[in-house]
Amino acid sequence: MPFGRPRGERADAARNREHLLAVAREMLAELGAEKVTMDGLAERAGLGKGTVFRRFGTRAGIFAALMDDTERAFQVRVLSGPPPLGPGAGPVERLVAYGRERVDFLFEHHAILRAALDRTRPIPAETSMSALHIRMLLGQAGLDVADLDTLATQLTAALEGPLLLYVAMTEESPADERLADSWQVLVERVCRP
Amino acid sequence: MPFGRPRGERADAARNREHLLAVAREMLAELGAEKVTMDGLAERAGLGKGTVFRRFGTRAGIFAALMDDTERAFQVRVLSGPPPLGPGAGPVERLVAYGRERVDFLFEHHAILRAALDRTRPIPAETSMSALHIRMLLGQAGLDVADLDTLATQLTAALEGPLLLYVAMTEESPADERLADSWQVLVERVCRP
DNA sequence: AGCATAAACGGACTTTACCCCGCTTAGTAT
DNA sequence: ATACTAAGCGGGGTAAAGTCCGTTTATGCT
Asked: What is the pLDDT of residues B2-41, one digit of tens each?
């Protein structure tokens, strides 16, 4: 009995998940996130709608699943890549590097990431890898601050909020550089002794 | 010819708007934001569905309209109330006071504010009164920072993002105090010379 | 191989936001 | 008053998310 998954995803189910993700990626490239509907996806994949929902739970779930690999790859670079993004540099330096990379990342995938936001319930801040990582680096920076958890949440919002919530995505605007530079200012000022 | 509105809202339309807002407030108190539907609202108000959409454009629009007065009142306190929230105190002191009040405000009205988020398009950061106010106070603080606009956007996200996006609203959690305290830490550190 | 069963499937059904457009009416000009 | 017209109104229609449940099938056991 092989353990491909932690007990219980049937082979056909796994196959269908992959197929659905592939079709979703196609439709995304072809039509844009707005136009990817559950019915459309199901039909184009040659599967029932119920199946799509069973696999992904919600429309947002599809986009979240679509980001899964990409997000994991990013995480690997952060956790074990070369410094200053990965370990080996000072915490503040790593925070700056993280913000810079993260802004690029958010920018590059903003369409999917926006679509992956479940508008009905909040993102658990604990689940956010950004929040956790920022929290850790803040800890290492040795700040004299009582509530690092909340500060980390706020910095996460400062980093990701603009792209998820506020800034309209116009092509030529250099918003990404400005956000990255401004993040550096923010972090360096917060972490000054 | 009286100028109740800047040209062109018919009397019956104005009456209906008020009535709809009143009914919406009722339903909100009675059923919660989730259960306020456009059909339900229209029916309970004794009006057609088309009318509701004509008046508010979108479901989110209703909640935005519901917050309009409240938001305006808040704005008045900020622009011309007693210090440190209003003018008369130093910019950093005002930033801290603003954040504290704003967190309370967001907390108090989180149900409506979340419902007022239009899930389909971003909030224009320029329209956000928070962003503008924070931008102004940052300017007065005389920081040696090149891009105050972007910094203001990020601080706005740090202030409002957690409540709009991340933090789950559990009753007894003292999240509001923690956010307010943490905001103070953030602002004072950012503004240190 | 045959069986039992939990998992997966499909698609009709429900709900809700939002659109459309022919009809009605407030406001105004004569 | 009357007539004109733009704004407003109503409610049926559409599209898309999400639910339900009867049917099918993969999988481990004997």
From this structure: 444 445 789 999 999 999 999 999 999 999 999 999 999 9
Nearest residue to A164 via CA among A101, A112, A124: A112
Contact A178, B151 (CB under 8 A): no
Global pTM?
0.91
**Using the beta-carbon criterion (under 8 Å), do B167 and A159 form an inter-chain contact?**
no
In the structure, how far is the CA atom of residue B169 from the C1' atom of nucleotide C12, in angstroms? 37
Concatenating the DSSP letter of every residue in B79-140 gives HHSSTTTSBTB-HHHHHHHHHHHHHHHHHHTHHHHHHHS-TTSPPPTTT-HHHHHHHHHHHH
**Distance of alpha carbon A13 from alpha carbon A7, whole angstroms:** 13
Contact B124 A186 (CB under 8 A): no
Q: How do residues A122-173 score in pLDDT, each as one tens digit?
A: 777 667 899 999 999 999 999 999 999 999 999 999 999 988 876 665 555 6
> Tell me, what's the pLDDT at B103?
95
Cβ atoms of residues A88 and A82 within 8 Å: yes
